[in-house]
Design a protein that fits this description.
Blueprint: H1 7-30, H2 36-48, E1 51-52, H3 53-60, H4 64-76, E2 80-85, E3 88-96, H5 98-118, H6 124-147
Antiparallel strand pairs: 1-3, 2-3
Length: about 170
């Protein structure tokens, strides 16, 4: 029986997808000796190129001290190069090394089959519509998050699942 449509149901489904995808990626990154956060960091650097350590930590929602340790681990493996920003010794910039880029390319090749399985049975026009809808929701979430500080966001972890997005 088809569940009644509601905005809350859509957002719950999206949340469930994200959580399950994290499980999938955690297992895939683990095959290469990476944690989920390390893999996400490498992918983030592929998308952005060289970038600020603080900005990437904020984007991934990892506390700066934790992120600094994570970067040291990636740096010790030769996957990331950390260097001082121009004119500010305290600010650090990050760049993938050639070895880091090669590892991400290897992971992408290996995971391409799983990504294809995720969308199997969905026609291209439906995927295009889904991408447009998700893009619109992402834009709206971005606007909301810029208008609120982390301190004023309501806690949702204790709310019953059906009320989480209402």
């Amino acid at each position: 029986m088809k569940e009644h449509f509601s905005q809350a149901n859509i957002l719950d489904e999206m949340t469930e997808i994200v959580l399950r995808m994290e499980d999938v990626f955690e297992a895939e990154f683990g095959e290469f000796g990476l944690s989920l956060a390390e893999g996400q960091t490498l992918y983030g650097l592929v998308r952005t190129g060289a970038g600020s350590q603080k900005q990437l930590a904020d984007r991934l929602r990892i506390e700066p001290p934790t992120f600094a340790r994570l970067i040291r681990r990636l740096e010790s493996r030769g996957l990331v190069w950390r260097f001082e920003a121009d004119g500010d010794r305290r600010a650090k910039q990050l760049l993938l090394t050639a070895e880091g880029r090669d590892l991400v390319a290897t992971i992408k090749r290996k995971t391409a089959g799983n990504l294809a399985k995720l969308v199997s049975g969905v026609i291209v026009s439906e995927l295009e519509t889904a991408q447009a809808v998700i893009g619109c929701i992402a834009t709206n979430v971005g606007k909301l998050s810029r208008n609120r500080s982390k301190k004023t966001l309501p806690r949702t972890d204790a709310a019953p699942r059906q009320d989480r997005w209402q």
